[in-house]
Records
---
Amino acid sequence: MRDAVIVEAVRTPIGKGKPGGALSAVHPVELLAHTLRALVTRSGIDPALVDDVIGGCVDQVGEQAMNTTRYAWLAAGLPESVPATTVDRQCGSSQQAVHFAAQGVIAGAYDLVVACGIESMSRVPMWSNVPPGADPFSAAIAARYPGGPVPQGISAELIAAAWSVSREAMDAFACDSHAKAAQARAAGLFEAELAPVATPAGIVTADESVRPGTTPEILAGLRPAFTDPGQAERFPQIDWSVTAGNSSPINDGASAVLITSSGTAARLGLRPLARLHSFAVTGSDPLLMLTGVIPATEKVLRRAGLSLAEIDLFEVNEAFASVVLAWQQETGADPAKVNVHGGAIALGHPLGASGTRLMTTLVHAMRERGARYALQTMCEAGGLANATVLEALD
């Protein structure tokens, strides 16, 4: 049976997703193009051998419309003969791109494929793809879920209430994320995965949202970010403890991984970083929305035939601190194994790029720490989650 392995993984530094952010002057097509060029250059492959390029992007509108992945490949000066497509599974879009790519390799439909992701939230703000007055859900959804869907911040508050996650615990988690990211950066642990980006203001070499001096006292001074009188009446259990400090920021970034089979890797002289061992995707309550990481973790471990104790490293996307803390309560995972180089609260969350950003960081952390098995999972809008188990091959 064929397998699927990652042979290269690269990402840009992550910029603040607002005007004046480190990457805000770079068109999203060109930002992803830069990442794709770096992936091809570092791997040394003939890009004409790539069978497909599968990219994740959430707000596919404006400068991110018209199949951004295809135009990024062309903007990179890479062969016109290579096709590309852009997928949307919300925050897990590029993790889903990895799944599609790996499944294609295992099935024999691909020999060499790129999975990648892009989001420029400074240039294409969140919800840009929903015009004012438009209803992306429909009356049928409002009927099934009285009161209608809620914003993700409200879901994060509901999770904090349901799992009794305190404001203090969330702020402490956020501080740890910044501390771990700062320590990893100081130790040079991101250098192998980063592709610095040239901008009109200079070369961007580091993630912009990491705040090494973050303390619980600083975070305690922040006001709740999602206070809403109508939602307070609908959900009286909420105590309004989710803030900008214990949530992921808004960001710009791109990332990419190169996937092939062990046989093709050997033939091309490529060294696998990790084998894509098992995959899972789940649906969950679309009001809580962000809890899908819990059943997704259980499902992928079952498919992998592994126990939680056999996993050496976890990457759980830090959309909100409450999500990861609820996941830890339910799974019993060792916090010392989770997001060891910091997570999205510190490094940033450029939506469509985050799946392959987490995977890029994870495969490099596996090699640095000698991990055999690693698990990545991401919560996604609408009550969805992806989970992936990786296995080291040497």
---
Amino acid sequence: MQNTPNPLIPRRDYLKWMGAAGLAATGVSGHAQSAWPNKPIRWIIPFAPGGTSSIVARGIAAQLTKQMGVSFVIDNKGGGGGVPAMQELHRAPADGYTIIMSHIGLMAVNPLIYPDSGYDVNKDFVPVTLLSRVPSLFVVHKDVPATDMKSLIAYVKSRPGQLNYASAGNASAGHLAMEALKLATGMFITHIPYRGTGPALNDVLAGRIQLFSAGTPALLPHIKSGAVRCIAVGTTERIPVLPDVPTVQELGFKDFETVQWYGIHARTGTPPEIITKLQQECAKAVKSPEVVAQNAAESAIPGGGSSAEYAAFVAREQARWKEVVIKGQIKPG
């Protein structure tokens, strides 16, 4: 049956009504899509507050809130290696109003050690953008009598299994960095997982834990105060904020590299235009003076690239860390 204009309805209003009816027939709201976002966006952080992920997220969230006119609400959901946080996103509607801070553990390691998580990181989630790559630092408590990597290795090997290192949780960036260092150096150190960098760092600062690896944002203040001593950095080159600290590669461990990275993933099925808009807004945010200054202060490398670029980056990381997971016998905590 052909639709004909009702003579009692002005033609302009009739066409508007017919357009709305057509969208309704497909279950799509033109207003809902064009108006995104029109309410706060929940940003799940899969660790307890106080760590690098939270610090990176707060800086970006402040800029996105300013740019987009809606609040980006940080929701810390620590524990379980980040699996509960990912499951929560998996249950959320694919509407762009729930996103997650994705990182090396969630995307590159958990698929290997949590095969029964109930989701597939490459099929059930879509990459939005890489936000930041943060140097990994290796530190010891100030009372540990080691001033460089050589003396640390000697100290640990004279006490095999007696020293502990903390991490933000199983399969966290710090856990992987320390396991990579153990494999490279032959040190035997016991892993003590926590529910985030903040809780782990508290015990490191208190002297209950001897070694730790985390990103520059969480550790720099404590290095500067003298509470912990930075032995080495995991980047391929020395970093500007700690120019006197050597890289692990410099110390004779060829091809060693550990860098923490943070990005955003959303639910698969989220409209492509929403993914594109969020990516574009993030690219703008990382170029803001506030975030540029934060990255410079922490020797972090900003992201902001496309969804496809982030997908390719994650794929490379998944391949690179598989060997560490297998050789380090990393298991669910």
---
Amino acid sequence: MQPEAAVVTAPLLTSAEVAATADAIEACQQPDGLILWFDGGHADPWNHVETAMALASAGRHRAAENAYEWLQANQHDAGSWHNYYTALGIKDFKVDTNCCAYVAVGVWHHWLATGDRGFVEAMWPTVARALDFVVSLRTASGHIPWAVHANGTPWPYALLTGSSSIVHSLRCGLALAELMGAERPAWARTLARTTHQIRHRPDGFEPKDRWAMDWYYPVLCGALDGAQARSHLAAGAPKFLLSQGVRCVADQSWVTAAETCECALAYLRTGSAATARRLVEATSAMRNDDGSYYTGWVVPKSRTFPDAERTSYTAAAVLLATDALDRRTGAAGALITTPGR
């Protein structure tokens, strides 16, 4: 299968639509910088970073930097953050390793979007502590546990989706280390080992193959590339792709806009720009007049699920996917290319 030919088309979102969606995300941001899933809801570090990236892609650099300042202020000395936060404090004390690592992707994205070296210098200690923490948890088998209990005990298994995301986080972290003139050989060793496991021993991860993320994340994050990535996407497409978008779970008729956009990025990474564009276009059915997006649809009834829920991370996924396709910013390639290549 050869990469699809580039097609010149109109932007997926107008500048006014990008601004409206950025407004919808900012409406979920608290005075201290924390970005909730929705008003009155909770936040997690991974989606918090994703929404900061989306704000940067819309030119809202100050709002994005406020989000990173929240991460700095709330990071534990060990380098971690808790699983869920609300406007009032910690909701879930568990620690998700993938969520902790993702700050490296956000800082690399912000650097590409702004060229602000001062921001990178300010955030580098936060990134370094976070990735040092994640790498320190690597087990004898080489796997990184997906989470750590509130009492500090790691969970007994690793997840393919989370480990794939950690691969991209480590690559971004190593790119930042090079920018800072720092060496992190332990990160490079962990990156190589985790990538090898994903490519050659996927059976070593906890089985989650009902979920679309376990299908497309190894490609989205660059752990699988080239012909292997294209073959992998082709094998899972009949199970997860619908005309309305990407099915969240293989045996449920629930299509989510965020996963549809993430999957689009995976296709775009393999050169399938036309497929990527078709997927992102499908999310327009979930867009509201104020620029926000419903989390998902139950198909074919086109009934919202969860009922009428609109989430900041869903709006963020759309902004990041449209930037990747329309090339609005210098960070357009941050999620579809491997730093250093």
